[in-house]
Amino acid sequence: MTIKKISKHQPETFEFNEENLILFQKEIKKYPETKKASAVISLLYLVQKQNNNWIPLIAIKYVAKLLSMSYMQVYEVVTFYSMFNLTPVGKYFIQVCTTTPCMIRDSKKIVDVCKKYISEKPDQISENKICSWTEVECLGSCVSAPMMQINSDYYEDLDEEKAEEIIKNILDDKLPPPGSARNRKNTSPENARTTLLEVKNA
Ligand code: FES
Questions:
Q1: Residues 6+ apart with CB under 8 A from 78
Q2: Domains in the chain, please, with CATH?
Q3: 53-102, pLDDT tens digit by residue?
Q4: Which atom of ligand 1 has the smallest separation from the CA of 145?
Q5: Is 44 exposed, middle or buried (0-12, 13-18, 19+ CB in 10 A)?
Q6: How far is the CA of 111 from the centre of ligand 1 (A)?
Q7: This prediction's pTM
Q8: Phi, psi for residue 158 in degrees, rounded to 5
Q9: How far is the CA of 7 from the centre of ligand 1 (A)?
Q10: Rounded to the nearest 5°, which phi and psi values hold at 194?
Q11: Which of 109, 199, 194, 114 is nearest to 145 (CA)?
């Protein structure tokens, strides 16, 4: 499990913009007054979206105040879920899964590609300031291991060459289409096989 890096450069203030204030009001109405804390993940998601995909510490205090929670309670949520970032990330943010199914399918080679082309250490932004990467636990796509997530999309059935091709493209500010590198449709079998009978005759 990777420990989250916290940015040394923290803004002094954070407030929701007008659009997110409206969304906050809508969200909070879904819960009884005494259960406002249930909205914590939704509010943190709004913070991250507003703040270039990372959450400053001052925003944790802001959310805690809005929901009448303690700073530590909100901090615990932020640090528990890998989808929340506590340090700035690149325009293209790569999360490489290195949990067992991906690991036994060589996810280490994908990590090595990230180290070679993006930055030696995780959570550092590439020299051209466009991309960063990190290691994460299972992203729920073990059936297409090894895989990585770039922003909101999954890139699956990878190997070293394919990962290299994708990363070189995003460093050129071009995002390749997501999905299986072996052209599988979702997680269906290869060669368009759909029934056991077809497997038998294949
Ligand atoms: S182990 Fe990598 S997606 Fe599940």
A1: 44, 55, 60, 84, 86
A2: 18-80 (1.10.10), 92-180 (3.40.30.10)
A3: 999 999 999 999 999 999 999 999 999 998 899 999 999 999 999 999 99
A4: 2
A5: buried
A6: 14
A7: 0.83
A8: -80, 160
A9: 27
A10: -130, -15
A11: 109
